[in-house]
Amino acid sequence: MTVTLCFFGELKTLTGCERDQLPFTKTLSLAELVRMHPAATKLLAWEGHLLYAVNHEQVDADYLVHDGDEVALMPPMTGG
User: Do the beta carbons of residue 50 and residue 61 sit within 8 Å?
Assistant: First the structure.
């Protein structure tokens, strides 16, 4: 089972990649999946502030990931 992670904004710079695939063997929430990424320690600084979209639909951090999902991780949006 795999899921594709897509990083946007500062998160792309932070992780050093735009897209990454993670294997998983059990049902996980998005928050748990983020903790599995090699850049997890950097991403955890954003915990509680990340915006998530799965297959182009905004979801909460407790959403359960399914095989083949495409997960977008975005920093909070700001404007001026």
Answer: yes
